[in-house]
Specification:
- It is a single chain.
- The chain has 291 residues and is an alpha+beta fold.
- It folds into 3 domains: 7-74 and 124-146, Ribosomal Protein S5, domain 2; 79-118, no CATH class; 149-287, no CATH class.
- The chain is 62% helix and 13% strand.
- The chain is built from 9 helices and 6 strands.
- The protein has helices spanning 46-57, 81-98, 105-110, 126-170, 173-195, 202-216, 219-236, 243-264, 267-287, and strands at 7-14, 18-27, 32-37, 60-70, 78-79, 117-118.
- The strands form 2 sheets. Strands 1-2-4-3 form a 4-stranded mixed sheet.
- β3, α1 (46-57) and β4 (60-70) form a beta-alpha-beta unit.
- α8 runs antiparallel to α9 (267-287).
- The chain is elongated.
């Protein structure tokens, strides 16, 4: 069963003190490309979070966002009265020396100065980290479910493309006999036109044409291509999702299709090869998103 690298999951938890939100997005990538954006409270756990993402999601461009809104007034910043009074006293002294009235605007100026507000940053408790960790795992489970559903759609499309290639491969057979006959006729006519039919050693000619036709034989390529297609389906239906292996098999399929095209020496077969290449390009593009 294959999985897509595209996924999304979100988990939200509200407590009397705060509202915590965890959001994970995943897209295709050759390696594990992690991007985490976490509040200062969870910075000490960032390495642990990244390791968890790598272990659970394995591969892909993965973005994780954790945010929280403070619901408890006790956790909000408070005015540092001592600092504000000290600032106002100094500002009044300077205003008096300059002969100007500080006015009501003085307070708005003071509130923007350092230490006018104070807030004690709480430490991350074991209880809160357990809640956050549980939420991350819930979001990861949703991402995995999303990947499975996307994988089913990918599997359907990939199977259809592989089966089309196999159908096209079967459609080559009727043209093979005609192709050999045409090549034989063409070589015979060319040789007779060059040296005359009375000068042709037919025994030697038959030996040479057999050798030449062996080079044009495509049976071996057909057998290998069919085996690659079967192996692709087998790998896709396996227990684990292995996009890298599927990509490698697709390359081998392309190698055999290209050889078929170069050895075909027949317009009808060449057309079939072109349609096979078109389906193979679809496979290669879709495999890029397989985990």
């Amino acid at each position: 069963m294959i999985r897509s690298m595209t996924g999304y999951g979100k988990s939200v938890l509200e407590t009397p003190q705060k509202k915590i939100s965890v959001e994970i997005r995943s897209l295709n990538s050759k390696q594990a490309d992690l991007n985490t954006k976490v509040p200062w409270l969870y910075k000490e756990k960032e390495i642990e979070i990244r390791n968890l993402l790598s272990k659970k999601l394995e591969r892909g461009k993965i973005d994780l966002f954790i945010s929280f809104d403070i619901m408890d007034d006790e956790l909000m910043p408070v005015i540092n009265k001592a600092s504000v009074k000290n600032y106002y006293r100094q500002l009044s002294e300077v205003s008096s020396e300059l002969g100007i009235d500080p006015g009501v605007e003085a307070l708005s100026i003071i509130m923007r100065l350092p230490e006018a507000l104070k807030s004690e940053k709480p430490e991350l408790t074991d209880e809160e980290w357990q809640m956050a960790s549980k939420m991350i795992n819930e979001a990861l489970s949703l991402v995995d479910k999303y990947r499975i559903e996307e994988g089913k759609a990918l599997e359907k499309d990939l199977s259809a493309s592989v089966n089309k290639i196999l159908d096209y491969l079967d459609s080559i057979a009727p043209y093979e006999g005609e192709r050999i006959a045409k090549v034989r006729e063409k070589l015979t006519a060319s040789l007779k036109d060059s040296i005359g039919s009375e000068n042709v050693d037919m025994n030697r000619f038959e030996q040479e044409i057999i050798f030449y036709l062996e080079k044009l034989d495509i049976n071996e390529e057909k057998v290998r291509l069919r085996k690659h297609c079967d192996y692709f389906i087998e790998t896709m239906n396996g227990k684990d999702s292995n996009g890298k292996m599927l990509s490698f098999i697709a390359q081998e399929m392309g190698r055999e299709i290209n050889t078929l095209g170069s050895k075909a020496n027949d317009a009808s077969i060449q057309k079939i090869v072109v349609t096979m290449k078109d389906e193979l390009e679809k496979i290669k593009e879709q495999v890029l998103n397989v985990l």
